[in-house]
Amino acid sequence: MLEPRPVKLTQPAPPRAVLCFFQDVINRLRRKGRLKVIGRLKSEIGPNPLYILEENGQNLLVAHPGVGAPLSAGFLEEIIALGVNRFIAAGGCGVIDHSINAGHPLILTGAVRDEGVSYHYLPPGREVSASPAAVAALQAALKSAGMPYTLAKAWTTDGIYRETVNRRATRLAEGCQVVEMEAAAFFAVAQFRGVTFGELVYGGDLVVPEGWDSRAWHKRADDRERIFWLAVQACLHL
Known about the structure:
GO terms for molecular function: purine-nucleoside phosphorylase activity; uridine phosphorylase activity. With about 240 residues, the protein is an alpha/beta fold.
């Protein structure tokens, strides 16, 4: 009954996009004149700019994907409607595995579907995978940069305050190392629409029975900038 319609742009969208969760990184790039606004997505929280970034002689679309599976999936749909078909997301995650240090890069290979959006796009199932081509592009980018990384499965949940001890234990047994709110929805929308999608995150807060530790994850400016530019390089590989 309702399909996403392309918003008006001042120039055509390039076929590749980096979805950056770090508004601080986006703001710095704007101040440096690296980002040019070509349009805006809209929601009740206000306009969400769509930017062009030129890197190595190529244009990429850059946008904030919103927070939480429903909003992020909706914005992804609207960007796909612009003709974009290759995506890398750059973000952070909670860590449920003690061995993952704060700031450590992780390439998400798949996600346990503990949210609602993915079930509107794919048949019921426990997990959904990232696009293999996007995972390979991310691996190539991190190897080229000499950056250690981990291939990881995410636990995607809608209930950030219902990450209980028993649920964490179950997700660890399923092979999850991190927890976040969007990956399963991203991967499901991408499969449904036939586009390529990968996600790079860094280890953030520690979510363990001994007690939550923020590890000042949101203040790691250098890590956030690094994750963004690694995502850019991976997107250029696609």
